[in-house]
Amino acid sequence: MPEAGGRAPESAGPAPEAVPVPVAPDPVGPVPVADDGALPLPTPLQVLRSLESGPKGLTEERAEERLAAVGPNTLPARRTPSLPRRMARGLRDPFTSVLLCLGLVSAAVTSWGTALVILALVTVSCAVRTAGEHRADRSSAALRALVADTATVLRRTAEGRREPRVREVPVDELVPGDVIRLGPGDLVPADVLLLRASGLRVHQAPLTGESAPVAKHPPEDAPSLAEPGPGLFDRPHLCFQGSGVASGSGTAVVVATGADTQLAAGQAAARERGIGAFDRSVYGISWILIRFMLLTPPLVLMADAAFGEHGGGTLPFAVAVAVSLTPEMLPVVVTTVLARGGVALARECRVIVRRLPALHDLAAMDVLCVDKTGTVTQDRPVVDRALDAYGRDDARVLRWAALNAAWTLQLAELPAPDALDEALLDADADPCGEDEAYEGVTALPFDHARRLSTAVLRRPGVLGAHTLVVKGAVENVLERCALDEDARARVRALAARQAADGLRVLAVATATRTPRARDWTPADERGLALTGLVTFRDALASTAPDALHALRDRGIAVRLVTGDHPETAARAWHELGLDPRPGSGGLLTGERIDALSDEELAGAVTRTAVFARCAAPHKARIVTALRAAGHTTGFLGDGVNDLAALRAADVGLCPRDAVAVAREGADVVLGDKDLAAVARAVDAGRRGGVAIATYLRVALSSNLGNALAMLVAVLLLPFVPMLPAQVLAQNLCFDAAQLSFAFDRRPRAVPARPTALDPRELLRFLTRFGLLNALADLATFAVIALTAHSAVTGAEPEVFHGGWFTENLLTQGLVILLLRGGSGRVRGPVGLAAAGLGVLGVLIPFTPLGPALGTAPLPPVAYALLALVLGLYGCALAAARARYAARHLGGQP
Ligand SMILES: Nc1ncnc2c1ncn2[C@@H]1O[C@H](COP(=O)(O)OP(=O)(O)OP(=O)(O)O)[C@@H](O)[C@H]1O
Ligand SMILES: [Mg+2]
């Protein structure tokens, strides 16, 4: 045992980038894992010993004690922030900042009332939003348990027992000293030191931002440990929490958990995904509005200076106008709508939305790419036949394939066999039985890029010969076989015929080699002799055809993107009953995609329905090309080879039993195997989208109308057209009423086509309806002028204020009712809000609050005329709305 290199880190001095000293309770000392490179480092065995563990893991009791001592393996960053911190975070959105600036301006000109109201607005919006987020967080925490991750760990039941049990434990229960197994698609659950590995490559993107997977292997000997790479994350023998296994497998000892991992230490700031389509459009709209707001006060002041002198009251008024333009409830409505959508989806369809804005992207999605295996198929393949190179049944082919599966599983210490290997083992229960007594030497497990797996075997007693058994995708095996062109073509045609029947096909080949001292590598997989083909049946998931049709009916085009044989893919597509070939593109293979430039691919993807023999980079390129072609693209996949595409898509979806890295990378996790949930999630997204768009339309068009009318009034009147207190009181009423959209009962009709928040469309809408709103205000001015028995200029300011206040609240009620969209009677919160506004608008001028706001009631006849104006306005609004919907919204509600 090479002990000599062992040094405790205390004596090595503080290392600049050392793995933080774990965590193991006394008497376990600090774990010497790395140092500054000048001193030799400990061997894995020493590390195991210092953690009071061994190659066979901890005992259950020891693990339990240690868990109690060091605490669960959870990231502190995942803990929910405190209430004050949340409130403070709420202040960071642009509207709140602008409001606060306006508040400061008001305070500076000692307009205390305005400043106070602004403060109230900010507090209310922050509080409602924080409460909404809190509720959403609580329910999603409960849901996260549904998709909680587990790790494969080796534990012994008692000190005396030698053989460990391999079992799955929740990731939070891992402790330093645990020996774990890593397989393709696993998330590395803690910081670990590798003891053994085979073909292991991990994605460290969450830690280093580097997208290509890096090779990891255990320190073969002490000197290699003493040669640290340039950075901690470059060390080949350490894997870090948050990375994902791209291929291969490994066995490792946990050295740091919970707050002691590099991820938690913040040395690797977890990289967030860039902002999505939804955030971009909300930000776009926000900035347009903020420019409006900032322009308003100078405009009002200029108009005032040029045309009228209203004395010192103008600046507070100008500030109040700017405040009234702000849709300050936008962040609240967005958060609440999305959170409610997410909670409802989880409850009703068991769909977990991990990133709430993804709901909007789901609503906007017009293309969904799905991978085949495990998504549209059941992923329970069963061996159908084993054929020799001429197509005759040959049981030996199955035996070789099963030997390969059994030994790769065992030698590579994979946590579990993949579906094809499992089918082979089921079909040939005892491949290592008496008559075929082979022993495993080493294995090169399957990886998606090679599409092969290899086991190196030997016969006990037979010296001087090792047998390579290779199985994998037909093309990949054939290109490594020593065959003439005719034979190759014949086997390819045989495989294509099998695939065209909807079967999955693997080729099996062998080679005899002389034993050797150095490692076997993929470069040795050549000059093989073809043994034959094994075919598998993997039935379509029964719900898949209906679910995909439901998506097509919602205006979402479906694309099949798979690693499988082109004929198998084409057959699956056919069985799904979707349009055989949209456009002329037909089917594209990964090889053809490689030959296309990005521009050519963007053209080709829109015409192609089925993509076959796609590796992970192809899948990601297809998604990127679809997005470049202007499609909001979703990707539904479950494998480690789908991760890049899940991340590249606007919205990534995966089934619940997807591999851990896919679940981590996806925005939406389907709780059940049923694909129909996707359509339901799309509907929920679209409903939420309608609610948010409605809020924006209502709030912005009436705010804009009011601001326009105020500008005109400043020009016409010798007095300030509205006291700041009135502007703000009115604004508070609007805000409260508009909040009801967040709680709106569902509009009955869900949009039949993809919907997205489009800033340009919104701008068009709000200029039209804003102008209409301003017209109603001007008509009201005329009514007041006529009925107050003097020219407008001679009207009592209080009567004018009162009349306009009443009209404003009533028109707002009308706008809420008529622009709400959707069919069905208005009931529930929206109806109540509209009615409430009307009542307040009419009554307040009569109450003691009236004089406080500078308002007084109108003469009775004015109310009759006002009713007329409102009736006309309502008709015009309904007509304009219907016309607009027909023209610009494609008849959508
Ligand atoms: N365990 C395995 N051993 C050998 N070859 C395999 C194994 N699993 C898959 N293959 C081969 O590799 C090919 C590609 O597999 P990959 O996992 O990349 O895609 P897939 O799972 O077939 O398709 P999808 O993308 O729809 O999930 C398979 O079609 C099969 O021929
Ligand atoms: Mg797959």
TrEMBL record:
Natural source organism: Streptomyces albiaxialis
Keyword ATP-binding tagged: yes
Gene: mgtA
Pfam families: Cation_ATPase_C, Cation_ATPase_N, E1-E2_ATPase, Hydrolase
Protein name (record): Magnesium-transporting ATPase, P-type 1
Compartments (UniProt record): Cell inner membrane
Keywords, sorted A to Z: ATP-binding, Cell inner membrane, Cell membrane, Magnesium, Membrane, Nucleotide-binding, Phosphoprotein, Translocase, Transmembrane, Transmembrane helix
Domain of life per record: Bacteria
Database matches in SUPFAM superfamilies: Calcium ATPase, transduction domain A, Calcium ATPase, transmembrane domain M, HAD-like
Principal EC category: translocase
UniProt topology in membrane: Multi-pass membrane protein
EC number: 7.2.2.14
UniProt cross-references to InterPro entries, sorted A to Z: ATPase_P-typ_cation-transptr_C, ATPase_P-typ_cation-transptr_N, ATPase_P-typ_cyto_dom_N, ATPase_P-typ_P_site, ATPase_P-typ_TM_dom_sf, ATPase_P-typ_transduc_dom_A_sf, ATPase_P-type_domA, HAD-like_sf
Record field: catalytic activity: Mg(2+)(out) + ATP + H2O = Mg(2+)(in) + ADP + phosphate + H(+); ATP + H2O = ADP + phosphate + H(+)
Sequence ranges of Pro residues compositional bias: 17-30
Function noted in UniProt: Mediates magnesium influx to the cytosol.
Spans traversing the lipid bilayer: 95-122, 704-723, 769-788, 800-819, 831-849, 861-880
UniProt region (Disordered), positions on chain: 1-37
Ranges where the Cation-transporting P-type ATPase N-terminal domain occurs: 35-111
Family note: Belongs to the cation transport ATPase (P-type) (TC 3.A.3) family. Type IIIB subfamily.
